Amino acid sequence: MANRIEFPQHGGPEVLRWVPYDVDQPMETEIIVRHHAIGLNYIDTYVRSGLYPVSQFPSGLGSEAAGEVVGVGSRVTRFKVGDRVVYCQSGLGAYSEYHHVDQSKAVILPEAISYQSAAASFLKGLTVYYLFHMTHKVQPGETLLFHAAAGGVGLIACQWAKALGAKLIGGVSSESKAQRAREAGAWATLNTSKEDIAKRVSELTAGQKVPVVYDSVGKATWQASLDCLQPRGLLVSFGNASGPVTGVDLAILNQKGSLFVTRPSLNGYLTTPEQLDQAGAALFDLIIAGKIEVSVPASQQFSLRDATQAHRALESRTTTGACLLIP
Ligand SMILES: NC(=O)c1ccc[n+]([C@@H]2O[C@H](COP(=O)([O-])OP(=O)(O)OC[C@H]3O[C@@H](n4cnc5c(N)ncnc54)[C@H](OP(=O)(O)O)[C@@H]3O)[C@@H](O)[C@H]2O)c1
Predict the structure, then answer these.
(1) How far apart are CA 132 and CA 80, in angstroms?
(2) How far apart (Å, rounded) are the C-alpha atoms in residues 69 and 103?
(3) What are the E-state strand segments in 155-266?
(4) Are 218 and 246 in contact (CB under 8 A)?
(5) H/E element holding 2?
(6) Where is the Enoyl reductase (ER) domain (predicted)?
(7) φ, ψ for residue 133 (rounded to 5)?
(8) What count of Cα atoms within 13 Å lies in the side-chain half-sphere of residue 105?
(9) Run means of pLDDT, 10 residues per run, the chain, 327 residues
(10) CB–CB of 36/115 below 8 Å?
């Protein structure tokens, strides 16, 4: 018998329940992971609220955690019992003491990286990997705008951009977040709650604007993000923290300078175990080299049974960097 978080219907953070359950045997290609730290991601709030609806209730939640392998299915080749692993993109249910995960979603965790650092950085770091190396290849010296730069994905992006020699302008909603983003490597910041985003980007770039904008805020920043782009620039719209972008009139891309827009997801980029291993290795190398640091303050480490409180914190915009759930 173990415990996990479930929800019986979509709704606010209060729908999350702490319930006992039986840990089944693994299917042929599954591993059972005993969790030491669980990643909290903004996408979990979309699943809970119903923005991304689930197919059946009660439903588990979460898709990322780090821990040790305590069971393997009969056709598992990548892992053995006792291995330290981290995974993401699993089926829903990572908010749990144990989770059954297909072996294709996990990688071996290097000894030098703690379970907590791994759970705080794997999904978010792989996201930055594909955004900076695959969606658009960020170049040394290139200037880019990255919204929510002091968030979980954002602080990793600030550090990764610096490691690549790029000049990241971080969009944030407060001065304390601006400071945090600059400490992490942002070249400059703008305060989205006070400043005209496009005007500030224009000032910072001597009127040149930027070739690429990474926008996970969505509805609230869509228009301004387009206005920050150079002719034929690329808007990478990869999240909906303020609500989804809908009803787009394509003519606007013509009017604002023959722009490009893409709406990517991690699932569409890292689709094989080999790609996961490669992207994971790139992230782990940067962490081990000290170029990406992912410590999570005690105030953002929540007991797993307090997932409701953790979701309230994340949605209130008061967190910086990553949050964890600890079983
Ligand atoms: N497509 C993909 O592959 C992919 C993968 C991973 C994550 N994502 C997206 O990346 C974003 C960041 O994820 P995360 O887990 O690291 O979360 P996070 O950045 O730690 O938290 C979300 C941040 O969004 C900003 N925000 C702006 N408007 C908001 C609003 N109305 N309500 C709440 N927050 C608002 C807040 O920063 P400020 O207060 O500074 O504005 C907040 O801290 C999310 O949108 C997520 O969906 C996409």
Answers:
(1) 33
(2) 11
(3) 167-172, 188-191, 210-215, 229-237, 260-262
(4) no
(5) strand 2-7
(6) 11-325
(7) -110, -20
(8) 23
(9) 97 98 97 98 98 97 98 98 98 98 98 98 98 98 98 98 98 98 98 97 98 98 98 98 96 98 98 97 98 96 98 98 98
(10) yes
Report which residue type is found at 237. S
Domains, the chain, ranges and CATH?
2-121+271-326 (3.90.180.10), 140-264 (3.40.50.720)
Best residue among 38, 40, 41, 42 to mutate for probing ligand 1's pocket (most ligand atoms within 8 Å of CB) is 42
Is the CB of 265 within 6 Å of ligand 1? yes
Alpha carbon of 125 to ligand 1 centroid (Å) = 14
Distance 242 CA to ligand 1 centre (A): 8
Compute the residue count for the chain: 327
176 lines ligand 1 (CB under 6 A): no
Only one residue has tokens 């008061």, namely: 318
Location of structure tokens 């300078």? 257
